[in-house]
Amino acid sequence: MKLRTFCCIAVLFCIAHTLAFAQSITLDSLWGKYVGTVYAMCFTPDSKYLLVAFDNYRTTIFDAQSGEEIRTFKTHYGCFEMKFSPDGGKLYSFSSGGVDILDATTFTSLDTVSFSFPSEEGATQYDVSNDGKYFVVKNGYEGINTDYYRMRVISYPEKKVLWLKDVVRWNSNFGYANSKVTFSNDGSYILGLSMNSLCKWNWKDSTSVVNYLIRNLPNQELISFSKDRNYCILLGNFIYDLRTGEQVLLNEVKSDITDYSYGSFLTLNNKLLLTTVKYNLFIVDFTSKRILANTKLEYVYGNYALNADNSLLVTPFGVDYIRIHRVVNTINKVDEERFDELKLDAILNQNSENVTLNIISKNNTNANIYITDLNGKEIFNLKEIKLYLGLNQVTLNRQDLVTGTYYINVSLNNKVYTTSFIITK
Questions:
Q1: Which of 122, 137, 216, 235 holds its CA 20 to 30 A away from the CA of 93?
Q2: HSE (CB half, 13 Å, CA atoms) of 50?
Q3: Tell me: the pLDDT tens digits for 336-367?
Q4: Global pTM?
Q5: Domains of the chain
């Protein structure tokens, strides 16, 4: 007998050597389902719906709270990335061939703009200015000059090329075609990479020269920019402040630069950082640099998203499944409670397939967690996991467990802490 899935959520909140409260984030699963191969996901601005784009030019609308499938619409170019206009009136569905512009209420097509040009590969990166009047598009060369990529600014609705720039990729071995490009918030500048430098181009002034904001970056795989364009994130969780040129150090969530299950972005007002490291999704308080939660994912590839108020999180669950979580902020007393190193509590979630194990730890430590049946037979072993000061949660899928009594055991410093739960079917 084995558990089909498990996820471990570890949270951290430290105040010197004593702690009055431990603040954390709890992920309460609302629903999950099989959807197929996902290309992109995003919530509508009002958080009522989740949009999921697939590989056959179709995008499906789901009710964010219930998971009910509302309807499906098709786009001309397909979708690798979705973005709503600041006023919430338009949806931009980007792909390598172009962008579909849709009404954000009816999801009917308003227009399309092609990103295809002779002797060039399809677009690898794209952005739209906040006023919707310009698109920036980055295309690679098709076997002509792999040391460069080409950026364009296209006007809308005129669909005219206003600016064109060939940019050094670094070289054919290290160039990364998918490295992000974006507009500044006022639309006057373009931010992106040239070789291993973060650059700023004034595309409206043909006489201006490139402004090198940050030189000698550790790699050329630029993942994302913050909403206010004050920060950029490179593969490996190298985060830089564009205003000072300095690196923001986050030692707890460093990633290997070969970890292509990676995705990372800052939420509105730079409140939270969401980032994946080796199939673990971390939620970090970006101001204090403290880890609020981390959860194990079976499959990542950058497809996860938060809604506007950070209350709903969608993550992959297996290759073709998604799961919606309610994000709950919790505060837990630690120092005033009288217990040894650990306190355990198992909660059977009647409305889901999960058993939640709450572990309150008085230290940052490593522990071994395993599950046994009534006869002491080991059913599953999570091996060694890291526990943080405060509340830690382990969520176990109980779908494959037959009716009976089970014990969750946490081994720490030659002691075993045990709690039980009962499955009835």
A1: 235
A2: 29
A3: 445 567 777 777 665 556 777 778 777 778 88
A4: 0.72
A5: 21-332 (2.130.10.10), 334-423 (2.60.40.3080)
